[in-house]
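Worked example (supplementary).
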Amino acid sequence: MLIDLLRASADRDPDRPLVVTDARSVSVAEVLAESKAVAAQLSRRGIPRIGCLIDDVASLVAVICGAAAAGTEICVLPTYLDAGALDELVASLGHPAVVVESGHRPAGADLLSLGEVTAPLPGSVSATEPDPGLLILTTGTTGQPKATHHKWSRLVSGVASDHGATWLLTYNVNQFAGIQLLLHVIVNDGTVVVPASRRPTDVIEAIGRHGITHVSGTPTFWRLLLVQTDEAFPVALEQITLGGEVVPADLLDRLHQMFPDTRITHIYAGTEFGSVIAVSDGLPGLPMDLLSRGEGGRAQLKVVDGELHVRSSVGMISYVGGSDVTTEWIATGDLVEVVGDRAMFVGRINDRINVAGTKVSPHAIEEAVYAVDGVELAAAYGKPNPITGSIVVVDVVASPGQDLDALKQAIRAGCAKLPLPARPRLIRFVDALDRRGGKTLRGVAPTNMGVSR
Amino acid sequence: MRDHESLVIGTIREMVERRTGTTANITLDSDMIADLEMDSLEIAELSAVLEEEYGEDPYTAGTLARTPREVLAFYQPASTA
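After joint prediction of all chains, the assembly is encoded as:
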């Protein structure tokens, strides 16, 4: 079905750039031609399941669409793992073959080069499986990544419409959000621009150079971008989208100040349950009326013991090796508090820090720290402690030129409104925060990085 | 020794003054629980600061040091015994 979407898009405008990178711009017709070759090659080989280790996003889209047309289930593997971790992952997923670009040589599977699978092959393709689906790995910010099995048809049905937009890719393409954005531009005759890196300077340069109008990123991504933007943002954006982490009120406010004419949307999505809610009213949290709607929509939501549960028509079929959950309520791991007519996110269930028996939310702590002038970035987490089980530590990236002793006192004063167990006991000034997949790591002590006292 | 003593006394003083809002008189033999009324969170903070500074601390090692002198003895047992 993906190749049909590509074909329809190419029929409308074959020369439209589908994927733009620093190195090249690839039209939808070119991606379609490459997809057909991939479909023929995989079909001829009769490979039912395949892994994929490709950095080049245009080639990746062709391999994804070609695999779907050949009836081959695909898993986009993360290209940033070290060799040992990658071998372990490939072995655990049990793929008989992996499509690789030069540089990646995972052990334990047949390797197919990108050149081999994109070589044109005459003949038609008849897939035995119309929707072989794909595996998506969870980000694993608070534990080991898990593999989820999805169907393309369900993911496509969750794609919102916005014709012809030019989007910036800020996610890894092995992540749910990255896959969803690729589908989004295929379905909506859009263009995706891949920046040279996710460093704010490269991002800002790419936005200006390629006429990007739509940017989706995690709250961590947006915070980093705002840090680099002293006054006005150099380009007007039509759409800003945030997701993947709790979206704090102060960040929404700052984005609205920096982008007064931009539509700003918080997407509630997860690898397991798909992209289920979009909120654009400028307020944090979810409107409660979304939680009380009945069946018929994309998803139903309910709160059980403070945790959001979702029953979704766009989510996974199952965890790999697990049972079908398409009609089940999925516990999201997201904790909410009902405040008036909003369900406010307070953190992940695994993020909570147990301080002397009291469960503490790192997000409430970060909110207090972010309210202090001179704080650019902050991450709260628990550190094991022999007296109280854990204590709260906050890593802070200070804005340039700060008196760190004075800033530490100001952070302590700002956190004095928190309950005693939630107040940071160690405030560490660091050069950067630990991140994975664009998200800030919380709930676990990050690796040591440039700590200064 | 002076550096260790300054850090231990200074850390304790900072915590107590943060809580009470008044100047604290702390000696090597002040009982952190009985005299200074430090609670478990403050002892936990002290242990974390010491562990950050020196890579080990008496509390994690299983010693419930009640005075600054007992804390210092963990690091330099011969000179403070």
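Two points are worth noting when inspecting this output. Chain A touches chain B through 17 residues (CB under 8 Å). Residues 311 and 329 of chain A are 5 Å apart (CA to CA).
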